[in-house]
Design a protein that fits this description.
It is a single chain. The chain is 20% helix and 24% strand. It has 696 residues and is of the alpha/beta class. It has an eight-stranded mixed beta sheet, with helices on both faces. A seven-stranded parallel beta sheet has the order 8-9-7-11-13-14-15, with helices on both faces. Strands 1, 2, 3, 4, 10 and 12 form a six-stranded antiparallel beta sheet that branches. The longest helix has 18 residues.
Length: 696
Amino acid sequence: MRAKATILFRCLPLLAAAFPVTALAEDPYVEGEVLVTFRPDVPEASARTKMAGRKMRLAETYDRVGAARGKLHGMVRDKSRTTAALIAELKADPSVETAEPNYLRKVSFIRPDDPHFPKLWGLENTGQVANLSAGTSGVDTRFIQAWNLSRTLVSAQDVVVCVADTGVDITHPDLAPNVWTNPGEVPGNDIDDDGNGYVDDVHGYDFAGNTAVMTDSGFHGTHVAGTVAATGKNGQGVIGLQFRAKILPMKLSTDGDHMSTSAIIAACNYAVAQKQRGVNVVAFNASYGGLSSSTAEYNAIAALGNAGIILCAAAGNDATNNDAIPQYPANYSLPNIITVASIDPRNGLSSFSNYGATTVDLAAPGTDIYSTVPLALGGRLSTVTIGSTTHLAAEIEFSGLTPLSGLTRTIHHCGTGEINAAFPPAVSGNIALIQRGNNTFADKATRARAAGAVAVIIYNNVDDTGGWTLGTAGDWLPTLQVTQATGNAILASLPATGNLVNAPHPSVAYRFISGTSMATPHVSAAVAFAARNFPAETMAARISRILDHTTAVPALAGRTIRGGRLDLLKMIDTDNDGLPDWWETERLGGLAQAATDDPDGDGFNNLVEFRSWTDPKSGGSHLAIASVQWSGTDLVLGVPTNVERRYQIEWSDTLTPPWTPLGDPVIGTGGTIQITDPGAHPATPQRFYRLNLLAD
């Protein structure tokens, strides 16, 4: 009996400077609302009294933001007066330090023209075509190489990224597993269980509508969230750049386009509060911007910084110089802001991207970024199934939807549906099959509804396909079109019960979008990646790790502060020796040793020790099957393990493929694990074993 151990390691695969202020057009704002900062000696009760005396209402206060500045911050509302009139009166009040409009920020994105070509070139660029445009190999964030050097940290505290945007579809199967959950809140009981002022904020909050419902008011926020932390290695869709992070959704918009400064400040306030409660919030993604500076917004972002939260801001999509034409929040001169431009797959500054030699820090992939969108905006799964046969269909424009499980009913043929008499009484509560004829599809669907049908299938009367429509949006039945051949096949199968599906489907709920909005979440995810691997680093050190280790890009020279693009591999391996900085620091005491050094003299160099997750300073620590012995009638193998690593023993009778797994993978405990081979017995002439260290 011989044992053999083989090492097989498989893995996955700013600071804005001062700038000249110029006279610019002002952003739109919420009429009748003013953001107010009171002087330090004004308590909240006094402020409310003063506002009431002016027939104004202090509608909101931002306690965490105010505490960071030692001043009361709030929003005054009086819809009977203009914002200009309110500001004029408030500025004359000696208790008020600043009064400014509640500006509306705009999300920063370029709408895509081809949403169905899933290529994440920003994570790995092999020169592939992304949205009909070929890239340049190697122009990416070196995602795979960096994750090969990442910590395992299976049981580590979640790293959380705030996605402050238009909302997030938290039901999207590629996002749901990574949506943050508030441990102090009980879902759906209409009670503020954790006493933070927000009812049922189980998965974040809607600061625009004052509700815990996070439904995306557009698609922008869901797309951003996917780039940050779409679930990885789940066999579907895309993968986020930090797919081990949690997303904290913060809805700021009711129309999918604009967001008020007051909602932004409330979200900042919430993020600080969660951080103070022990939630590991590390980044706040701000894929929005505008032209107007706001003292209140500045102070809110400063409060994030005081709490150790980095705000990643989109530079803007006007192809202009932020040094001359400031964008906010991107241009605030605060030490916790990273401002992000966009590069394209060919290593150029994206045609739409803003830039700034003294105000924009770096660039990240932002052209043709493929990511998640709300399920309701994805494509449709449209089918008719009878027995074991599934027929492909297509929804007629403006068709109603079914559940994903579909509607299972009896199908009744209704001729061409041109007269009411064509619909038999039995179609009520069932599915109408109708042939194309001389009347409109809307007329057919209307008559089917009047007859009590719950869904409609219309089949062609000629051998072609067409983009059919019901004419206008409305409360239509689920109405599908099928070809002439499919219609005849369904007709021939009658009488029959069928299942009709016309539903948004997770497999097609993705889209290409371009913009600095799409570049920014790459950097927010990079902050979370740094926090995963270097959890003890200060915020300033984390920012330096990102900004000091970019890859130089000629097109960015003189257009960004760092002149480079985001590089995850350089972040985690700053001395470029193939070993992650965190491992070298913890296991070797610093970055001085080379990957080929063997400090414990056991024949396994530092690179091998890292890959096998063993101790480079202990000669007895290396990946191996340490013992093989009989225990009664069973053969037992002893494997020294490290905490949280996954191991798999495989066996072969011939030392050649195929190798067969010996049971399920085991999780390391830090001690020796005993693994039994029930298939081995003393009469076996020989059996070989090998030990694999599995990927995270």
